[in-house]
Amino acid sequence: DTGVSQNPRHKITKRGQNVTFRCDPISEHNRLYWYRQTLGQGPEFLTYFQNEAQLEKSRLLSDRFSAERPKGSFSTLEIQRTEQGDSAMYLCASSLGGALYFGPGTRLLVL
Amino acid sequence: TQLLEQSPQFLSIQEGENLTVYCNSSSVFSSLQWYRQEPGEGPVLLVTVVTGGEVKKLKRLTFQFGDARKDSSLHITAAQPGDTGLYLCAGDFRGTGKLIFGQGTTLQVKP
């Protein structure tokens, strides 16, 4: 399968813990996006990379969130000191500048 | 701030009926995409429209892009239970590939 992959698929954590998610994009895609989605709503933009450069970060994203894309390949999204409001599906997508291709998402539950 | 308004938010119909979902904005899109998402999975691209007035067909699905590139519609003919899911429109306003999503339309087709 050469689509976008995300790990883990599910994560349950206690409030205050740190979590890290990984995204492996389609290999030839130079752009990588992170979105967050709550139940029954559309995805909300968090940040995106072109190659290894982080070009934009949502103003809604607090300082507890950080994303990296070393070497312009896979990306990680870390949430520090998780809060219950962070519970959501975290989606990764990649593209060559046109349509976005999404991974299956990581569902986070903060207890 | 660019916003996409999608309507209706919920739709429950019988198999064989037709339906239309609308996506509107006060801003001009560089391009617009429609996605379908099933529970626990990432959105899957259905179509991309770029040119004002463009009409694209995908089997029983017809997508239309408004002449002014500010609105779009998705029409499903003779809906089937397999069409059940969350339908999302997403606009690229600046040509960067960063998408702004509507809140989605949850469609349920009953046999």
How does this model look, in words?
The complex is a heterodimer of chains A (111) and B (111). By secondary structure, chain A is mainly beta. Chain A has no helices and 11 strands. Chain A has strands at residues 5-7, 10-13, 19-24, 31-37, 44-50, 53-57, 65-68, 75-79, 88-95, 101-102, 106-110. The mean pLDDT of chain A is 93. With 111 residues, chain B is mainly beta. Chain B contains no helices and 11 strands. In chain B, β7 and β8 form a beta hairpin. The chains are: A mainly beta (111), B mainly beta (111). The A-B interface holds A 4, 31, 33, 35, 40-45, 48, 55-56, 91, 93, 95, 97-105, 107 and B 4, 6, 31, 33, 35, 40-45, 48, 86, 88, 90, 96-104, 106.
Give descriptors for this structure.
heterodimer, A: 111 residues, 7-stranded mixed sheet, 4-stranded antiparallel sheet, B: 111 residues, mainly beta, 6-stranded mixed sheet, 5-stranded antiparallel sheet, 11 strands
H/I helix tally of chain A: 0
* Beta strands of chain B, count: 11
Query: Radius of gyration of chain B from the CA trace?
Result: 13 Å
Largest sheet of chain B: 6 strands, mixed
Give the averaged pLDDT of chain A, no decimals. 93
Radius of gyration of chain A: 13 Å
Helix share of residues of chain B? under 10%
SSE string of chain A: EEEEEEEEEEE
Which regions of chain B contain 5 or more consecutive residues with pLDDT less than 50? none
Most extensive protein-chain contact, per-chain counts: A-B, 26 and 25 residues
- Order of helix and strand elements from N to C terminus of chain B: EEEEEEEEEEE
- Say how many strands of chain A there are: 11
Name the shape of chain A in a single word: globular
| Gross geometry of chain B | globular
Give the helix/strand class of chain A: mainly beta
Work out the helix count of chain B. 0
